[in-house]
Amino acid sequence: MPATIDSTDAAAIRALLDRSSAAWANGDGTAYGACFTEDATDVTYVGTVYRGGDEIGRAHQALFDSFLKGTALTVEITELRPLGPDAAIAVTRGDVAKRGARPKRLGKLATYTVVREADGSWRIAAVQKTQRKPLMEALSFRFRPMTRPA
Fold it and tell me: Distance (Å, rounded) from C-alpha 128 to C-alpha 41?
């Protein structure tokens, strides 16, 4: 297995995450759900689990129409590595802010598992989001230095 993803696949994966962010900014749950596989899993940072692109899109439309109305999702890939020729992991940091504004900090982490489907397009098979807790992290590193990542 190659240690890196070729530039064509990396660009396609970045474009997939950009499409999901654009769908979010447009408040379009259908387009957001279309970025996911039919059997995808979305674990939100509050712990809700959605399954399948249709459910993910439907649930997010309800959020876009209420709590997330007028927001945009910023996603920056910090690591992109292959799991094989048709699967990869994208570790990202990001956050949500009012549409047109950049978040003050990118305090959420998300790990995406993306797959190339039979039609050649990349889609999100799973995503798990976590709210970063910098103070807890700093305390852990201070009192248990071996917990600090390399």
Answer: 8
